[in-house]
Amino acid sequence: MSRLVVVSNRLADPRKPAAGGLAVALGEALNQTGGLWFGWSGTVAENGTPGEGELHTRQAGPVTLATLDLCSEDHHSYYQGYSNSVLWPVFHYRLDLADFDASYIAGYRRVNKLFARKLLPLLRDDDTIWIHDYHLIPLAAELRAMGCKQRMGFFLHIPMPPPLIMAAIPQHEWLMRSLFAYDLVGLQSEADVSHFKRYVRNEGSAEEVDDTRVRAFGATVAVQAFPIGIDVEEFTRLTQASEAVETYESMRAEYSRRRLLMGIDRLDYSKGIPQRVRAFRELLDRYPENRGSSTLIMIASPTRDDVNAYADLRQELEGLCGSVNGDYGELDWMPVRYIHRMVARKRVPGLCRAASVGLVTPLRDGMNLVAKEYVVAQDPDDPGVLVLSRFAGAAEQLKEALLVNPYDTQGMADSIQQALQMPLAERQARHQKLMERIREHDVHWWRQSFLSALQSAGA
């Protein structure tokens, strides 16, 4: 078996439980081959030189963790600039929030070249290289230019936008052409695959070689959907652990006379959080029987507070929550409980289990694993109902959820009411089917399917 090399913007020690499901899943494969995980260290060297960075290596059991420092100029242009102020908003369909500063792309290319230069001496001839996410789209092209012949795959964790939105990015053809340096490109959904193929047909006169392979720009790449899952067994254990049970019991005691609706997100404009609060307001207005009996708990953990778009979002959300509470609240009932801080992961399953309705309503999302975690956390004898945005990648799999359009305030309020009124037998039937699909396509299936397809694509 060839050694697995994983490359991502950030990395985690796969031995630590707090590393999360993705790190654990990748860690399994890395452990099997004595693999290498390469990425940014998280350190910003204030006086460093652009295009340079100190490399650090350490062992985590049989896995080598190799990390690279970035200077402040590279961090600003590559990470804050091109990755998070161009690619993130555009790939989530928010052209209005993109900052197409011409200096950003130079830093993005410079850091990808730096990654390639530092990674190359660490590689073996028979390595299998798996590169992750939008920060590192051109990394394979940089490695190929340096003579790298190894099998390489790429997985995009965020959505692939439609061709016309992608075409708004300056030098978009260079960006998409660089994906043809890979043997396999993995995307979250069939919709993403369709967007990719339409782009390369329109812009690169692509030919479809077969069901998965596309030829354009003088190269051939396999493109497939690999919807990422969660570690069901690990999350089930977390649900049964003392912290989650304690959280569930305290929530049930605190809200014994209420039905809980739960939203757990990062505070990001892609998550549709203000739209969710407006839908809850509409619910209270159109279905007054929910006044005093239903409480929306909104957990929006901090993210990128130094970016104006996020500061504006926080201000908007706090205004909306205050307005609902002011207009509908009673002395003994607060309609919305808004929390702007991180909640310990060990307590998340307890919060999910206590909620009669899970609200996962992003405006656009690559997958959204909170939707799957909510389902797994439920009591199968008395499960809650998942209300899921049709614009989340998870909607392709989780068809038994109540699928909603987060831009349709009235329609979303009607669906929340349907969830609150749903009979037990229907809730059980929907939950059972959702669980079957989540178990079948868990994070281990995702990893094995991708690596198997990569072996075939690079053969």
Describe the structure.
Helix 2 crosses helix 3 (102-119), helix 10 packs parallel to helix 11 (308-328) and helix 10 (273-286) crosses helix 14 (409-421). The mean pLDDT is 94. The chain has helices at residues 21-33, 72-91, 102-119, 139-145, 163-166, 172-178, 190-204, 232-240, 242-254, 273-286, 308-328, 348-354, 369-377, 409-421, 424-440, 443-457, and strands at 4-7, 36-45, 55-60, 63-71, 128-132, 151-155, 184-187, 207-208, 213-216, 219-225, 259-266, 294-301, 336-339, 357-360, 385-389, 402-404. The chain has 16 helices and 16 strands. The strands form two sheets. A ten-stranded mixed beta sheet has the order 3-4-2-1-5-6-7-10-9-8, sandwiched between helices. The chain has a six-stranded parallel beta sheet with strand order 13-12-11-14-15-16, with helices on both faces. The radius of gyration is 23 Å and the shape is globular.
Shape: globular
The CATH topology of the largest domain is: Rossmann fold
Main sheet: which strands, in order across?
A: 3-4-2-1-5-6-7-10-9-8
Measure the end-to-end span: 14 Å
Helix content: 40-55%
Q: What is the CATH level 1 assignment of the largest domain?
A: Alpha Beta
- Quote the average pLDDT: 94
Structural class: alpha/beta
The assigned CATH architecture of the largest domain is 3-Layer(aba) Sandwich
| SS elements, strand count | 16
Kindly estimate the percentage of residues that lie in beta strands according to DSSP.
15-25%
* Main beta sheet strand tally, sense and closure: 10 strands, mixed
Runs with pLDDT <50, length 5+? none
CATH homologous superfamily heading of the largest domain: Glycogen Phosphorylase B
Number of helices: 16
